[in-house]
Design goal:
The complex is a heterotrimer of chains A (274), B (213) and C (229). With 213 residues, chain B is an alpha/beta fold. Chain B is built from seven helices and eleven strands. Classes of the chains: A alpha/beta (274), B alpha/beta (213), C mainly alpha (229).
C-alpha cells in the first residue's frame, strides 16, 4: 500500500488498523501453536480410547474410568447413548474403539457387517428387569397380573423397538400373556431415564427398568423382579471395533473382566458374566 | 365561547397559555417546537394538561381542580392532523363516514356523506384510497371527515404545509368559504405569517409555550 | 400413517388459535397500559424461545404432573389431565408457539402510527371500536405472519411434547414424534413419507402467504408519506 499517498490522518488510521491486525494474527498463531503443542504432547504420552457404551452403564463406567486412567497411560473418552443410536453411528463410521451394547441385536448387526474384530466379542454383563413404583404400591402388587388393577393407570416402559429394556419387558409380558391386556396403560418412552422420570414424579404409577437403574432411583422401590425364564438372557455384549487401537482396546476389555471392575459393576446392580 | 387556561410542563419549557375565543378563526403562529400542537392536543383531549381548565360555554372539558377530564371521544372536537391521518385501509367514503353515528343522524348516513363530499368537491373520489389521492384532495377529505360529525370547534395543525403553492392558493380560497359557511370556532396552527394574516381573524403568537401579544 | 397427520393438524390448529388469542391480548395490554410487571411478563412470554424443548417439557411436567398441586387440582375439579393426553400435546405446542406469535403481534402493533388511533378517537370512537376498525386491520399482515410462524412451530414441536404427552399413537403421537420413532426403528419408508408430507405442506402455506402479503403493500406506501412535526 503506497502509504505516502495518503494524508496524515489516513496514514495513522491505516497504521493503527494494520497494527491491530498484526496483533490479532500473532495471538491467533500463538494460540494454535499452543493447542497444537498440547495435543501432540498428549498424543505422544497418552493414548485416547473412544468407548461407545449404552447409556445405562454411565455411572459404572465413569467410576471405572477413574480407576483405569490412574493405572494406565490411556485417556478414556466415553460416548453414552441408546444402543441403537450407537450402532448406527458406528455403521456410519464414527471413530469408536470399543462398543458395549445393552442389547444383543445391535452387536449382532455390527458383527454381520464385519465392523467388530473377530474373537473379541464377549457377553460382559448380565442384568434383569424389575418393576418399580412408589412404596405404597408394594403392598398392592404381588404379581404381574395385579397390574390390571384400576389403581394402576399408567405403566411406563421404553419403546420396545428402540429401547432394549422395553424389548425385554415386552417379551416378558407376552410370556405371561399380559401384553395385550395391559395395552392401554403403556406409556412408551424414548429411554430408561424417561421411565424413571415418569415413575419418580408419579405420573406413571409403575414402570419397567433394569435392576441396575432401580438402584439409582430415589423415591421408588423395586416391587417385583421378572424371572429370567420370561425373556432372552439380558446380556451386555462388548467387543473391539475395527480401528486403529486394537491392542489398547483388548487391554481395556480384559480389565473390565477383572476383579476391580467387577466390584464396581456389582455396586451398580450388574452381574458380571462368567 | 371556548375558554382555555392551561399549564403543561414539557421537556424543555413550560406551556402557559390563557385565551378565549368565540365563533372566529384564531391562528396560532410560532416557530416549530413552540408547543402549538400540544395546545391543540390538550383542547382535543389527547394530552392532559398539568393544571388549568378548558371549557366550552358552561361545559367543562377539563378542570384540574375538580378532577374533570372528558375523554377524547366525548368532546366532539374536529381535528385535522398535520399529515391528515386518513385511514389508509379505508376508502374515502368510509373514511368520511367513520365518525358518523347512525343514531345521531337525521336521515340516511350515506346521503349525509354524499352531501358533504359534494360541498368539498370530492364526490368522484368516493371509492378511492388515500394513497391514490393528491395532497390537496387528501386535505379536503380530512376536512370533510372532521366536519361531517358537526363538531363544536375545528382544530387544524399546519394543514397547508405539505402542499405546493398552486394547491395552497386554491385551498386558502376554499378555507375562507368554509369559514363563512360553517361558522364555528376554528383554531389553525401555522408557522407561515402570510398564511396567518390571510386566514385568521385573530393572531396569537406562541414562543416557547408562552403567549406573545 | 393418517393418525399422526390428523392429530398433528388438530393439535397445531388449536395451539395456534390459543396463542393468537393470548398473544393478541397480551400485546394489546402491554402496549396500551402501564402495567408494573411489564418486563417480567414479557420475559416469561419470550422464555420458551430460548429454552431447549426438553427443558420446557420437564417444566410442564413439574407444573401439570399428576402428582402436583396444580395437576391434581385440574384433574379433580375440571376433569382435565394434561400428562399423556392430547391436551398435554396442545399445551406443549401452545407454549412454544406463543412467543413467536406475541413478538409478531407486538411488532405489528408498534408499527402502527399512533396518529390513526388518535384521529379515530377524535371522531368519537371508543377503545373497542378503535381496536377492531383501526388497530387490527392495520396490524393484519403482522398478525398473519405471526400466525403462520406459530402454526409451523406448533406443528414441528417435538421435545416438550414427548416429555409431557408421551409417545402414544392416536393420542399424542404427532408427526414429528412419528418421524423420530420411524427413523429409530429403521422404518425409513414411513419416515420419508411423513417428512415429504410436512415439507410440502409447510412450503405451500408459506408460499401462499408471501403471495398474499405482496398485495397489502399500500399500507407501507401511506406510512412513508406521514411526516410528524
Amino acid at each position: 500500500m503506497p502509504l505516502f499517498e495518503l494524508k496524515y490522518n489516513d496514514y495513522m488510521e491505516a497504521n493503527m488498523k494494520g497494527n491491530v491486525f498484526k496483533i490479532l494474527l500473532v495471538i491467533f498463531v500463538v494460540a494454535t501453536t499452543l493447542v497444537g503443542c498440547n495435543t501432540k504432547g498428549v498424543a505422544e504420552e497418552n493414548q485416547v480410547l473412544t468407548i461407545f457404551a449404552a447409556a445405562s452403564l454411565t455411572d459404572a463406567l465413569n467410576e471405572i474410568k477413574g480407576l483405569y486412567e490412574g493405572k494406565n497411560n490411556t485417556i478414556l473418552q466415553f460416548n453414552f447413548a441408546a444402543s441403537g443410536t450407537l450402532q448406527k453411528q458406528i455403521e456410519e463410521g464414527a471413530p469408536a474403539d470399543v462398543f458395549i451394547s445393552a442389547g444383543v441385536k445391535q452387536m449382532d448387526e455390527l458383527q454381520a457387517k464385519e465392523l467388530i474384530v473377530r474373537g473379541t466379542r464377549q457377553d460382559l454383563l448380565k442384568n434383569s428387569i424389575v418393576l418399580i413404583g412408589a412404596e405404597k404400591f408394594k403392598e398392592k402388587i404381588h404379581s404381574l397380573e395385579d397390574l390390571q388393577s384400576e389403581d394402576i393407570k399408567y405403566v411406563a416402559i421404553g419403546t420396545p423397538e428402540t429401547v432394549p429394556a422395553g424389548q425385554y419387558t415386552k417379551e416378558s409380558l407376552e410370556y405371561y400373556k399380559l401384553w395385550e391386556l395391559l395395552g392401554n396403560k403403556f406409556v412408551f418412552t424414548k429411554d430408561v431415564r424417561q421411565v424413571l422420570t415418569y415413575v419418580e414424579s408419579g405420573n406413571a404409577e409403575v414402570g419397567f427398568i433394569y435392576q441396575s437403574d432401580a438402584l439409582v432411583s430415589k423415591n421408588t422401590v423395586v416391587i417385583l423382579e421378572i424371572p429370567e425364564v420370561a425373556h432372552k438372557a439380558i446380556v451386555y455384549p462388548a467387543a473391539v471395533v475395527k480401528g486403529k487401537a486394537e491392542e489398547e482396546s483388548r487391554k481395556f476389555l480384559a480389565y473390565l473382566n477383572g476383579k476391580e471392575a467387577r466390584i464396581v459393576f456389582e455396586k451398580y446392580g450388574y452381574v458380571v458374566n462368567k | 365561547m371556548l375558554r382555555v387556561n392551561i399549564i403543561k410542563n414539557l421537556n424543555n419549557f413550560k406551556i402557559d397559555v390563557a385565551f378565549e375565543m368565540g365563533k372566529e378563526t384564531v391562528v396560532l403562529l410560532g416557530p416549530s417546537g413552540a408547543g402549538k400542537s400540544t395546545i391543540l392536543n390538550c383542547i382535543a383531549g389527547l394530552v392532559k394538561p398539568d393544571i388549568g381548565s378548558i371549557s366550552w360555554y358552561d361545559q367543562a372539558l377539563f378542570d384540574s381542580d375538580k378532577g374533570i377530564n372528558l375523554p377524547v371521544r366525548a368532546r366532539k372536537v374536529g381535528y385535522v392532523f398535520q399529515a391528515y391521518a386518513l385511514f389508509p385501509h379505508m376508502s374515502v367514503s368510509k373514511n368520511i363516514c367513520y365518525g358518523v353515528n347512525e343514531k345521531d343522524v337525521i336521515g340516511n348516513p350515506k346521503a349525509l356523506v354524499m352531501e358533504i363530499m359534494e360541498k368539498f368537491h370530492i364526490s368522484g373520489l368516493a371509492n378511492k384510497y388515500p394513497h391514490q389521492l393528491s395532497g390537496g384532495e387528501r386535505q379536503r377529505v380530512a376536512l370533510a371527515r372532521s366536519l361531517v360529525i358537526r363538531p363544536k370547534l375545528l382544530l387544524l395543525d399546519e394543514p397547508f404545509s405539505a402542499l405546493d403553492t398552486e394547491t395552497k392558493a386554491m385551498l386558502y380560497h376554499e378555507f375562507l368559504q368554509l369559514k363563512n359557511e360553517w361558522n364555528i370556532p376554528i383554531i389553525l396552527i401555522t408557522h407561515n405569517e402570510e398564511e396567518a394574516r390571510l386566514l385568521g381573524d385573530r393572531l396569537i403568537s406562541i414562543k416557547q409555550g408562552q403567549l406573545q401579544e | 400413517m393418517l393418525q399422526p397427520i390428523y392429530l398433528s393438524l388438530r393439535v397445531a390448529t388449536i395451539a395456534t388459535i390459543l396463542s393468537l388469542v393470548i398473544g393478541t391480548s397480551f400485546a394489546y395490554l402491554l402496549a396500551h397500559k402501564r402495567l408494573k410487571g411489564i418486563t417480567l411478563i414479557e420475559t416469561l412470554l419470550t422464555l420458551p424461545l430460548v429454552l431447549p424443548p426438553t427443558v420446557i417439557g420437564y417444566g410442564l411436567l413439574i407444573l401439570f404432573g399428576r402428582n402436583t398441586i396444580f395437576g391434581r387440582f385440574l384433574y379433580n375439579n375440571l376433569g382435565i389431565q394434561v400428562v399423556f393426553t392430547t391436551t398435554g400435546a396442545i399445551i406443549a405446542a401452545t407454549v412454544v408457539a406463543l412467543p413467536l406469535m406475541y413478538q409478531s403481534i407486538k411488532a405489528a402493533f408498534a408499527n402502527i402510527d399512533p396518529i390513526y388511533e388518535r384521529a379515530a378517537a377524535t371522531l368519537g370512537a371508543g377503545r373497542i371500536k378503535i381496536f377492531f376498525t383501526i388497530t387490527l386491520p392495520l396490524a393484519w399482515t403482522g398478525i398473519l405472519s405471526g400466525t403462520v410462524l406459530a402454526f409451523a412451530r406448533a406443528l414441528g414441536e417435538f421435545g416438550a411434547t414427548l416429555m409431557i404427552a408421551g409417545n402414544i399413537p392416536g393420542r399424542t403421537q404427532t408427526i414429528p414424534l412419528a418421524i423420530y420413532f420411524a427413523v429409530e426403528t429403521g422404518n425409513k419408508a414411513l419416515a420419508n413419507k411423513l417428512v415429504a408430507l410436512m415439507t410440502t405442506f409447510s412450503f405451500i402455506v408459506i408460499f401462499v402467504l408471501n403471495l398474499w402479503l405482496k398485495k397489502k403493500h399500500y399500507i407501507s406506501l401511506m406510512r412513508e408519506e406521514n411526516v410528524e412535526s
